[in-house]
Amino acid sequence: EFFSSTSGLGQLLRTEVIVLKELQTYVNEIREHADLLQREINEIRAEHLTAAKSIESYLNNPVNAFRLIKRLHTDWETLEGTVESEHSRTNFLEAMAGHRQNLSFPTMEDFVGTTLAMTRLQQTYKLDVAELSSGMLNGVKYGSAMSWQDCFVLGQHLYSMNDFNNTVPWLEQSMRLLAQQSYSDEPVSLDFMEAVIGYHESLGDYQNALNLINHVLDVEPEQRLHLLEKRAHLEQLISDGVKRGLMHEVARRPEDYHATQDYLIYQQVCREELMPTAAAQRELRCRYFSGHGRSLNYLAYKLEELHRDPYIIQLHEVIGAHESVQLQHLARPVLQRSEVYSPTNGSTAATFRTSQGTVFEYDEHPIIEKLSQHMTLISGLDMGFAEPLQIANYGIGGHYEPHMDSFPESFDYSLQRFKTNRIATGIFYLSNVEAGGATAFPFLPLLVKPEQGSLLFWYNLHRSGDADYRTKHAGCPVLQGSKWIANVWIRLSHQDHVRPCQLQRDHEVSLQYKD
Ligand SMILES: O=C(O)CCC(=O)C(=O)O
Ligand SMILES: [Fe+2]
Question: What is the whole-number distance in angstroms between the Cα of residue 79 and the centre of ligand 1?
């Protein structure tokens, strides 16, 4: 799978280089052949020009008569023979069949995933489709521009997923780009346009459909006769003033999480439209922290409070850039699509968590061991009750929608190594991210930008052991770059010495945030 992580995309680029070379070989061969045939054609045409001066006297000449007969009898057979024995096409197709087996190609799922990622970015960061398709992100040019066909294919795909809200701007952009090219005249483009006509029609945009039909008919009136009937039908619809209403005005399904207030707030936090108040920020402190049970001679951690209640801190420069990159290298060969827990299906891949990840036991490698030591010093918690370290990589558009790290009350612990809930989470950021990809706490409303080598730490549970629903959090979509994190989840067992439980439940404050 390629779309959920940037680390697989390099393979696809290599695939493209190889198949392009194959196609170039094919093109060279058929071009050589075409050149040969063209020379023959030119010679015969020149002969015909001579003949045309006086056909009768030309044919009365026995040499000319002989040559004409020879041309049509023998030469033509030879020409036909060269077409028949043209192996370029079969060679190419055979080579491609081999490549399909040996090289990496994206699947339908990759295509769906990357389409979803584009619209997710567009919506979360309120990007302008025209800007996005020109390769610009927030005013900075990152990629190459999309063609009108690219925009169209994206729109077409969204349409097939019944996502009409997002279909329309992409089709409109596709039309805008097409118009800039002063409507291409190539037959392939015309075929494409015919397909687009259907989309505009079914979306209720009859005028755009009609404009396109007229263009196609102007260029190829003879070959596109089947469009005449459709043109008459559209003209009728327009003159009758039929308005189906653009389909994108249809409301989303109300049960859709993406339509909830919760989700809107989350997106606002990702866009930094919502942030903690000045009063809340004033209370926060930065300090040097020598760690639990560590003598003051040691180098201290740079601790920054990000939130008081619930307590959320970020520790800067915990590990070095070199160690971060080394951890990425350890994980890269064994990455797999991340899964989520669902009460009905167990662990499955889901569109609301698109990343790739892998797990390591803490004693598997000295650097991983070191992360555990940092966690012990920073949190004071017993890492003997931590789940294996999880390293994850998010590609462009990769995200993890708002969720709780703690398990629900109904959770079945019977198959778990540790039978208690996740008391705390630590996220080591193993990379910076050029744009997007921050960790958002929508209810606080806090946004933490990935900073390579730093550690984000918070408690998921109240002292009573109940879930603190205010700690719901998310990984905002990555807009540019590749995001690497290492997740530490520590369980509640045997942690009383650091965070004594309270006899009285202190969880009421967060109940209003429960789903
Ligand atoms: O990617 C992030 O910033 C958050 C990740 C997260 O919440 C998780 O993996 O549980
Ligand atoms: Fe999480």
Answer: 66
State how far the alpha carbon of 167 is from the alpha carbons of 3, 234, 259, in Å: 20, 21, 17
462 CB near ligand 1 (under 6 Å): no
Ligand nearest to the CA of 484: 1
Ligand 2 is a single-atom ion; what residues have CB below 5 A from it? Answer: 405
Q: Any idea which residue has 């778990």 for tokens?
A: 416
CA-to-CA distance for 147 and 153, rounded, in angstroms? 10
Query: Which residues have CB under 8 Å from 390's CB, separation 6+?
Result: 357, 358, 359, 486, 487, 489
Q: Ligand 2 centre from 446 Cα, in Å?
A: 14
Residues belonging to the chain: 515
pLDDT tens for the 515 residues of the chain, in order: 666 666 678 888 889 999 999 999 999 999 999 999 999 999 999 999 989 998 888 888 888 888 898 899 888 998 999 888 888 999 999 999 999 999 988 887 777 778 778 888 888 988 888 888 887 776 777 677 888 888 888 887 777 766 777 777 888 888 888 777 655 667 767 787 787 787 777 767 788 789 889 988 988 888 899 999 999 999 998 888 766 544 333 333 445 677 788 999 999 999 999 999 999 999 999 999 988 876 555 678 999 999 999 999 999 999 999 999 999 999 999 888 777 766 666 666 667 777 888 999 999 999 999 999 999 999 999 999 999 999 999 887 888 989 999 998 888 888 888 999 999 999 999 999 988 999 999 999 999 999 999 999 999 999 999 999 999 999 999 988 889 999 999 999 888 888 888 778 878 888 888 88
15 lines ligand 1 (CB under 6 A): no
Task: Tell me the CA–centroid distance for residue 405 and ligand 2, in Å.
Answer: 5
Upper half-sphere CA count for residue 137 (Cβ side, 13 Å): 18
Quote the ligand 1 centre to 498 CA distance (angstroms): 24
Beta-bridge mates of residue 473 = 403
Please name the residues in contact with 468: beta carbons below 8 A apart, sequence gap of 6 or more.
310, 406, 459, 460, 461, 462, 507, 510
The finding on whether 400 has its CB within 6 A of some atom of ligand 1 is yes
Q: Is 478 helix (H, G, I), strand (E, B) or coil?
A: strand
Q: Which residue's CA is the nearest one to ligand 1's atom 4?
A: 475
- Say yes or no: CB of residue 443 within 6 Å of ligand 1: no
| Mutation probe of ligand 1 site: the residue of 487, 489, 490 with most atoms within 8 A of C-beta | 487
Is 473 a pocket residue for ligand 1 (Cβ < 6 Å)?
A: yes
